Amino acid sequence: MNILRKQDLSITYWLKDIFSTMPTIQIVDGFPDATMTLPTISIEAQPIVGLPFELGNRISLKQRFWIIDAFAQNKAQRDEIAGLIIDAIEYGISVYNYDQGFPPGVSPSKIGALEVSDLRVTPVRVFPELQEKMYWRTSVSFTTIYHPISS
């Protein structure tokens, strides 16, 4: 499995760990569909940008943009979800080798970390008459650069 997919899975399991004490929260990879139940948290990886790293070297740092959308039942729940994500993101996001297997049956080894920058939390306002399930929604967006563990 390539490193980008390992990053996707690492963010998904990172969120599942953050919200492990709240079993009613559903975590989905990608934007939820019409069968979504509240509360739901979705993760979407956005464009990847290669940033020049060394003069004369073609290898670049891969900057990724992420959006985590939280769909809640009310304002208090929405704000609590956003607050827990903000608190946890300050410690960075570890990336694991999911070629070894997946939790909870396997504890894969750490192979690197995502350095987080440009954190933004934006409440998304939707008229309840248009879409009731998306009324209490917030969007947490941030940029990451992957740093592997040197061996």
Q: Which structural category do the helix and sheet elements fall into? A: alpha+beta
What is the number of domains?
Answer: 1
The dominant shape is: globular
Give the biggest sheet: 6 strands, mixed
The helix content is: 10-25%
Q: CATH top level?
A: Alpha Beta
Instruction: Provide the gyration radius in Å.
Output: 17 Å
Q: Do you know the CATH topology?
A: STM4215-like
Low-confidence stretches: none
SSE sequence, one letter per element:
HEEEHEEE
**Count of alpha/pi helices:** 2
Give the terminus-to-terminus CA distance. Answer: 19 Å
CATH architecture: 2-Layer Sandwich
DSSP strand content: 35-45%
Quick structural overview:
By secondary structure, the chain is an alpha+beta fold.
Keywords:
single chain, 151 residues, alpha+beta, STM4215-like, 6-stranded mixed β-sheet, 2 helices, 6 strands, 42% strand, globular
Characterise the protein shown here.
This protein is of the alpha+beta class and 151 residues long. The protein is 21% helix and 42% strand. It has helices spanning 3-18, 75-89, and strands spanning 26-29, 40-52, 60-72, 93-96, 110-125, 136-148. The relative contact order is 0.20.
